[in-house]
Amino acid sequence: MSLAALLGAGTDGAAIWLGGTEPPLLMGAAGCLQTLAAPVAGDVPDLSLWLGSGVAESLADPLSGLFQRDEPFLRDVAVAGVMMCVEGKAVAGNRVVTTRRLSASEAGAVSTVPFQDLFRASTLPVWQRDLEGRLVRVNPAFAAAVGGASPEDVCTKGLELLDQPAREASAAARRKGEPYQARVRVVAGGRRQILDVLEVPGPQGSAGLAVDATAAEALRGEIERTIAAHRRTLDQLATAVAMFGPDERLQFHNSAYERLFELDPTFLDERPTESEILERMRLARRVPEQADFRAWREHLREAYRAIEPVHDWWHLPGGQMLRVVATPNAEGGVTYLFEDLSERISLESRYNSLIRIQGETLDGLAEAVAVFGSDGRLRLYNQAFLALWSLSAQALGERPHIDAVAAMCRPLYGETGTWARIRSVITAIEHRRGEQLRLERADGRVLDGAAQPLPDGGTMVTFRDVTDSVKVERALIERNEALEAADVLKNAFVGHVSYHLRTPLNTLIGYAHMLGETAIGPLNDRQREFLDHVRQSSDTLRALIDDILDLATIDAGAMALDLGEVDVRGTLEGVAEAVRDLLEQVGVALRIEAPADVGHFVADGRRVRQILFNLLSNAIAASPSGSTVVLSAERRPDAVVLKVRDEGTGISPELTDRLFDRFETGPSAGGRGGVGLGLSIVRSFMTLHGGTVTLQPAPSGGTLAACFFPLDAPRRSEAAA
User: Fold this and answer.
1) Which residues are paired to 406 by β-bridges?
2) pLDDT interval class at 334 (50, 70, 90)
3) Is the pLDDT of residue 405 over 50?
4) How far is CA 668 from the centre of its chain?
5) Which of 132, 485, 653, 660 is the most buried (most CB within 10 A)?
């Protein structure tokens, strides 16, 4: 009994089990367990009558360890609202369970039973240190973080979670009586972690806990990077962005905001309030003109209390039109978006104006116009299109497809393939090419149509009524064909008549010459004069018939050139000899101008002499008596030029080309003009030689005719019709 008294000294109650089979010795408050029998091996005694059922249940595991494995325990529990310290010991095979009432200071220094449970069950590392800073108590989460076998093992070995600098900082705060709070990097559980550490000092040491902030720190970094990326993106936008915090101060703005409102970047970097910014913008006339600016500004502040975005329009004094969206932020504050729509509204206005002008222009066109989209549906048409195809605006109001439009027009155009070709252009996807087409409708109207692809994938279809012009064209064609047939008939008639006139003419000329011979008999002067007139008239008539036959041959395309070497100087002299009698009759002189080295060229010598003869005959006819006609030749690198110049009255520029027409005559001296075939023959012969002939006023008066015979141009054997 003295041993029991010794073991129970200083306690409020004690239960001592001596040996394994004897009932326990009870002392103090444990006396309520008088009926408690000796425990059977492996059993746990029921202490609910002594400590209460709740405390007894919480001590079930420690009691089991005491009676089965001799493991001691120490627990602070609340019994009937009083803090008690329950201790279990095993001494030489005996078990002792004692309770001791805690003092007020001890009760304040220890936790309640729920805190003890929380201490053990917490997933956060929790620890207690003594006044020397040594670990005296840790929870299982702390032991797992530092790799300890158990919390007791951690305290025994002094395994620390915090590094040396963190412990030193914590000790310094503890000495000052201040809590230590910091974010530290540690290696816990075999991986690097970021912990938020809190240590609170107390009378018997300090207690601390660590919260894993690794995920939160990573998330914070990701959020910061995301916000930075968003801000960089916003800074590239053309839309002005400004973010204000709950305190109505500027938190962020992009470059477009500075440019739009012409604000100083230094001023904006000072994070001014929205009111300060609006006041500066008002002074710069970058906000709408307001009769009561203060009331308008207060109205803007309602966006801070709004739930949904607020939309507004700002009409600036400079003519700009801004679309403003104020979006409340979830964390407080407002984000403003300012979109400058001035150019867009101006473009829309001009676009609408152009559309109206386009519609009015199309309606004013005589051509029928219809525009089909890339989907084959009608997008645009004018009144002429409706009138041409007898359609109504109501029928085309639903933007019908090209097939439906073609079906509406079928009563007028019948079953031709024209609209099928138009449809192929409209519905083509690749290799889109325009189509030109002519459509003759059943009502006799003739239309010229076109289907032209447009750059936007659409197709413009136009129709033009060419009925009248087609009728005129067909009439002209028929008339031209009739004239050509008449011209052929005329040439054939002239050639036929001229050919049959030569035979009796040659007989007359022959008899005239025979009558002039002395062998026939003498003639008096009057008879001889009459005979000379007959011979002259016969020669003139023969020359005229020869010209007509030459022209007929040329028109028929049957004249061929007899090409050969032509001596230029000899040709000029031969032609001069041929017109000598004519020169003597009219009293006109002839002068030949040709260099000695003028040489030869390839041509039909007979036709060249005929050309020069006709030109000289015209020049002599146009020259007054006593004047001089000049016949000249010039050799150039690319051509031989033969010229005839007279000293007559000249020709006007408007007659230059007309004189080459048949039966067209120019001015002559003394009424010596011809029938107007000479120059026409000259031009035809020059064309056969691949050359040209010109008429122009001479520098010193009169007319200059020039024939250009190319030296290297191919000669045609036939004249063009």
Assistant:
1) none
2) very high
3) yes
4) 74
5) 660
pLDDT range class, residue 172, cuts 50, 70, 90: confident
Residue 488's CB: how many other CB atoms inside 10 A? 13
Number of compact structural domains in the chain = 6
- Which residue range(s) make up the domain with 422? 348-465
What does the alpha-carbon distance between residue 288 and residue 321 come to, in Å, rounded to a whole number? Answer: 10
Residue with tokens 């150019």: 343
Statement to judge: residues 325 and 453 lie in one domain: no
Say which amino acid occupies 64. S
Residue type at position 579: V
Strands 94-101 and 82-91: antiparallel
Q: Is 115 within a domain?
A: no
Distance in angstroms (rounded) separating the CA atoms of residues 539 and 436: 61
Q: Tell me, what's the pLDDT at 707?
A: 92
Helix (H) or strand (E) holding 655: none
Residue with tokens 């101006």: 346
Both structure tokens of 223: 């959020």
Rounded alpha-carbon distances, angstroms, from residue 159 to 20, 145, 185, 294: 39, 10, 17, 67
Number of Cα atoms under 13 Å in the Cβ half of residue 161: 34
Q: Quickly list DSSP for 440-467.
A: E-TTS-EEEEEEEE-TTS-EEEEEEE-H
* CA–CA separation, 644 and 621 (whole Å): 13
Cα dist from 433 to 371, 461, 594, whole Å: 16, 13, 63
Q: Alpha-carbon distance 335 to 230, whole Å?
A: 14
CB 686 within 8 A of CB 692: yes
Amino acid at 584: E
Amino acid identity of residue 721, one-letter, is A
Residue pair 95/45 in contact (Cβ under 8 Å)? The answer is no
Tokens 């020669």 correspond to 539
Rounded to whole angstroms, the Cα distance separating 168 from 190 reads: 23
Q: How large is the C-alpha radius of gyration of the chain?
A: 65
Q: SS3 of 179, please?
A: coil
Are both 454 and 483 inside the same structural domain?
no
Picking from 405, 536, 519, the residue whose alpha carbon sits closest to that of residue 459 is 405
HSE at residue 604, side-chain half, CA atoms within 13 A, is 20
Is the same domain home to 332 and 381? no
In a domain, 547, yes or no: no
Q: Are 577 and 696 in a shared domain?
A: yes
- Within this chain, do residues 90 and 127 fall inside the same structural domain, yes or no? no
Lowest model confidence (mean pLDDT) among 165-179, 303-317, 508-522: 508-522
The DSSP result for 141-174, as a single string, is HHHHHHT-SSHHHHHHHT--SS-HHHHHHHHHHH
Cα–Cα distance, 250 to 310 (Å, whole number): 19
Evaluate whether 549 touches 505 at the Cβ level (below 8 Å): no
**Which amino acid, one-letter code, is at 41?**
A
List 705's β-bridge partners, or say none. Answer: 644, 695
Q: Which of 314, 325, 333 is nearest to 273 (CA)?
A: 333
**Cα–Cα distance between 709 and 713 in angstroms, integer?**
9
CA-to-CA distance for 631 and 592, rounded, in angstroms?
5
